[in-house]
Every structure is written in C-alpha cells, then in structure tokens.
C-alpha cells in the first residue's frame, strides 16, 4: 500500500515476486482503467478491449495450473484482485467470473478433453466464459433451483432460467448448473447453442461498468460430453464459489484503499474556514478509522492467502474474510464520500462509485447473512439456515 495507507509495514510481509505482480497490475489500472472508468460507469459499458490485455498480463485463471494457465500463488492472485478493484469492482468481477468460476469449474471438474478445449483460449482472453447458478427464485438457496436437465438418448435437454449471470451476453461458453434425476450437475454449453439466450439486466445503480444477465434455457440440447464429470451435487459449484469469494476478500480492500486515499488527498487541499479539512479533529478521526480498518483487512486477507497457499484454508475462514472486508469496505467508501461533501456524489471522484459497486459485491457470492450463518454454524456446531 502507499505509505500513508500502510500503517503497519504490511508491504514487508510480501515477497519480491508478489510485490512485482501487484505493481504490474497497479500500473495497468493506473494507465488503462482510471482515465476511462467514470465514462464507462456512466455509460454502463464494460470495455471489451481490455480482455486481451488481461490475458496477456496473466490475470485470467491466474491461480490455475497447466492448460495455458499462469499457475500463480493465491497471494499473487489476491494482490491482483485488490489492484483491479481499486480501479473498479466490474474489472475484478470479470477476472473472478472468468478465472475463478467458469475456468475454475472446468479446471476442477472437467475432463481432460474439456480442459484442453477451453482453458488455453480462456486464459488468453480469446474466449469469455460465464457461470450459471443463481436463479430468479434461488439465490442464497441454490439447492432449490428449478433448471432441470433430462436425459434423451445420449443427450441432455436443459430448461430453466438463471439470473444475475455475469458476462453471459458477451460469453462464448457457459458453465450451467442444473438439477437432474441424479442431483445437481454441471454442463459446458457453447453460448451459440440453440435455446440459450442471455439478456443484460438494465438499468442498474451498481456495477454499471460490468455485465450481468438474465439467461433463458429452452429445450437446449447438449451432447453427453458436455457434462462436467467431476461435479456431483452442490459441492461442485460451491467449490468454485469459494475461489471467487477468496478474491473478493482482497478486492474489497482495493476499493476501500482507493476511496480512503481520495478522501485523504481531497481533505489536505480542500479549505474550510481558512483551514484544510485534514486539519480538523473530526476529519482526522474518520481518516484514522479508515486506515485502521484497511490495515486490519489487509492482514486478514494475507493470512487467508497464506493458508490457501499452504493448502489449509477452510470454508469458514473464507466467510470470515468476505463478511468482514466487504462490510468494512463499504463503510469506508461511504465515509470517504462524506469527507468529499457534495463533490463526492459526482463521478469526478470514485468513493460513491465504489460504494455503489460494493452493494453488489456484498450481496453476490454469499450475502452478509449467509456468511454470518456459516460462521455461526462453525462456532456453535448448530446449523441455523432454516
């Protein structure tokens, strides 16, 4: 972190390779995203032109091994997510949906033929993927999904609806989860398959520089080879969701840091009653509280990243990070907006954009309530979801 955000010398806890990855992504964001993001957000446009560059930087499926994937560490992936979300949540969301969800599902649960067919092109950014789990009436409870896949000879026929499916209208391939007579199964579906239709959800007040869609599946016929052989039951998609949740733990701190630094710079030069805002005790208290939570959130993310790299990360630990860091990040962004006063509601400054985006980030990949109950179940030994 910049010196006036890093109170605890957290940078000293990273390796040279980790810092190099962070700096590469930060340079990309500073040069290619910051000058344009306000316009993309206002126009509700995701910049398709950045996708090949994300691939060339090794940011797509970056934590996956083989099949053209970079095979970077969990901490490197986390730092990349942080810097991307400091630009905009929509950018980090693209990398998350592409790499952790769509590519992650194929890498974790696919056949060798499926992996070789899709992963190299997806890692390069030549093919965009989406991940269809959530439905209009099945968000936090995906076990109640109504999308159904029936056998017909050697083929599968899928019918149903999905909602809030990131990238679906720009994707060339979809990973779709459906109920079958054998429980929940996953399928790889080329987006040009007859019966597959993706419609962007508009208008939105959050994640405007991003793509989320309604997806309709009407008598979609897939060959038997479309089935993901390694995924049975909800554990299949949940393992992918945990990968995406991990990236959010870091990404949320990127949005928080960007908002904090914006408020800090503004308060130093904004004069009120012939004195910089930063010189007032109430402003300093706000800035101190922001910096403390960013530092605590970074330490939490780093510990979770080290556990993941060591192969010891548990699902409840991911919930602890996602719940805390999203909750604190949105508070920081809102407080930063308050320091900016009326100017803070314009797109000239990022805190309100970040806060609006975090309303979505806080909701997807598990709401605050879901992660609270995961932690509550771990602490008490008593599941309280119903």
Write structural notes for this entry.
Helices cover 50% and strands 16% of the residues. It is an alpha+beta fold and 386 residues long. The chain folds into 3 domains: 10-123, Orthogonal Bundle (Butyryl-Coa Dehydrogenase, subunit A, domain 1), CATH 1.10.540; 129-226, Butyryl-CoA Dehydrogenase, subunit A, domain 2 (Beta Barrel); 235-380, Up-down Bundle (Butyryl-CoA Dehydrogenase, subunit A, domain 3), CATH 1.20.140.10. The chain has a 4-stranded antiparallel β-sheet with strand order 4-5-9-8, with helices on one face.
Features:
386 residues; alpha+beta; Butyryl-Coa Dehydrogenase, subunit A, domain 1; Butyryl-CoA Dehydrogenase, subunit A, domain 2; Butyryl-CoA Dehydrogenase, subunit A, domain 3; three-stranded mixed β-sheet; 50% helix; globular; oxidoreductase; glutaryl-CoA dehydrogenase activity; FAD; fatty-acyl-CoA binding
What's this, in brief?
This protein is α+β, with helices and mostly antiparallel strands and 386 residues long.
What fraction of the residues are assigned to beta strands by DSSP?
Answer: 15-25%
Gyration radius, rounded: 21 Å
Specify the biggest β-sheet. Answer: 4 strands, antiparallel
What would CATH call the class of the largest domain? Answer: Mainly Alpha
Total number of helical segments? 11
Order of helices and strands: HHHEEHHHEEEEEEEHEEHHHH
Q: Tally the beta strands.
A: 11
Spatially, the strands of the biggest sheet line up as 4-5-9-8
Q: Whole-number average pLDDT?
A: 97
CATH architecture of the largest domain: Up-down Bundle
- Uncertain parts: none
How would the global form be characterised? globular
